[in-house]
Specification:
The protein has 129 residues and is mainly β. It has two domains: 8-56, no CATH class; 57-129, OB fold (Dihydrolipoamide Acetyltransferase, E2P) (Beta Barrel). It has one helix and eight strands; from the N terminus they run αββββββββ. It has one helix at residues 13-20; strands at 24-29, 35-36, 51-56, 59-68, 82-89, 94-100, 109-117, 120-127. The longest helix is centred in the first third of the chain and has 8 residues, at 13-20. The structure holds zinc ion. Zinc ion (ZN) binds at residues 29, 31-32, 34, 43, 45-46, 48.
Length: 129
C-alpha cells in the first residue's frame, strides 16, 4: 500500500507547484491583508475574492504536537511512531506537518523541508538548531 498523495485542485495547484519548486506559498487577502492557509477561493476572514500568493520564509514555531503510534494505514507502519505538529509560521498562519530529525515540543523552532512522494512534493518540518 502506498502513502496517499495530494490531488491538487484549482485552489491548491499554485501551492503544490510551489512545493515542487521548494517554495512554501500561501495566500494573502488584498482586502483585509490577512494571510491564510490552506488556499481557498475566498478569504476566510472577510470573504473577499481578491487574493494574492506569497512565498513564506519557511520558518515557524511548534504550536502543538502529538505522537502517532499507529498511522492512518499500513503504509505508515515503518514510520511509526512519528510526530505531527501544528506550526505557527512566522508569516502568521498555521499548517500541519510531520516532524523530521528529532523530537519537537511546544515552542520548538522548525523549518519547512520537502519530501518526494510519488510525483508530488510534500512539505514537512525539521527542528532548527
Ligand atoms: Zn480578507
Amino acid at each position: 500500500m502506498e502513502k496517499p498523495v495530494p490531488r491538487p485542485n484549482a485552489d491548491s495547484a499554485p501551492f503544490w507547484e510551489g512545493c515542487a519548486a521548494h517554495e512554501f506559498r500561501f495566500q494573502r487577502c488584498n482586502s483585509c491583508g490577512k494571510p491564510q492557509f490552506y488556499s481557498r477561493a475566498v478569504c476566510a476572514h472577510c470573504q473577499a475574492t481578491d487574493l494574492s500568493w506569497e512565498v513564506a520564509a519557511g520558518e515557524g514555531t511548534v504550536h502543538s504536537v502529538t505522537t502517532v503510534h499507529r498511522g492512518p494505514s499500513v503504509a505508515f507502519k515503518e514510520d511509526s511512531p512519528y510526530q505531527v505538529a501544528l506550526v505557527d509560521m512566522d508569516e502568521g498562519f498555521r499548517f500541519m506537518a510531520n516532524v523530521r530529525g528529532g523530537e519537537a515540543e511546544i515552542g520548538t523552532p522548525v523549518r519547512v523541508i520537502y519530501e518526494k512522494r510519488g510525483d508530488q512534493t510534500i512539505p514537512q518540518v525539521e527542528i532548527r538548531g
